[in-house]
């Protein structure tokens, strides 16, 4: 790859930290438990990768440090990463700087450190305030630790906090889900991400199900919980702007909107995936292959896919239809120089079945069909 190939205007930067203190029962993301020396080596190589990319994309407006669990890094190592980030990029242009964290990692020292480096948004993987749900999901924090984390954020004037909530565990009632949402709201979360529990392969929950120890909630029951949560959050002034995301006015995730608008972005670290020059890249998952690629200045990508124009349009639709506002057809035509209805005749069929709505030059999934969005999106393949 030449520098010219990577010189496209990019404003969003993602850094991947693949380490977790424990592996949750539902999670299939790339993550690991690692010895301290492995974490040190990884951060050193991530900084080397940053040094390569920073001159090519100097004007970053959103930064997102995710994982894994970034807060699982020892504070001196996190400080080393944040200091290097500020050395390589002028972050005065950054509008939103997010870091993911577990509730049990939120301390006064942690909040002081991230404030020093101008991190202005925290995404907390709380998942639930219910002790039984937390145990089933394999989360290590307690209800009280989750509440304390939110109180500390408020005390340290970190106002832009997202809370992740999982719903749809077996026998979960709406009263349990509503209680989770109420706790997040009462402790000043400005943004709530609401995810249905999905059984992924090679997870503890999938293993339990295979042994008859766990039974999934039906899609119909999950759908009813989701619909009730939509109405409740709306009644509390949390506006839904994406299938899984709700926020108070002014607190949409700018970084995630880059993904949903199908704009280019840069992602660094092992297993990180990014989109540049109509091509999707995925860095090596295996740490030694990643280290080798950084040393060679030539990454042996796990995936490198150049998208055709049709594939670009299809991805634009699939990502954009996740947003409540959907696709702006005028903007789509200006970007791809073709009419979306002519290019994808299935849209008219979906409109006739009320799975899509075309209104005011916008194409979107109706509110009552959002939980079934995958049934719409797969029709574009």
| Overall pLDDT metric | 94
The figure for the number of domains is: 2
- Low-pLDDT parts are none
Query: Given the C-alpha coordinates, what overall shape results?
Result: globular
Task: Give me the number of helical elements.
Answer: 15
Following the backbone from N to C, one meets helices and strands in this order, namely EHEHEHEHHEHEHHEEHEEEHEHEHHHEEH
Query: Can you tell me the CATH architecture of the largest domain?
Result: Alpha-Beta Horseshoe
How many beta-strand segments? 15
Give the amount of beta strand, in percent. 15-25%
Which structural class fits the helix and strand makeup?
A: alpha/beta
Radius of gyration: 21 Å
* Order of adjacent strands in the largest pleated sheet: 7-8-6-5-4-3-2-1-9
CATH superfamily of the largest domain: tm_1862 like domain
Q: Identify the quaternary structure here.
A: single chain
Largest sheet: 9 strands, mixed
> What is the C-level CATH assignment of the largest domain?
Alpha Beta
Stated plainly, the CATH topology of the largest domain is called: pyruvate-formate lyase- activating enzyme
Please give the share of residues in helix.
Answer: 25-40%
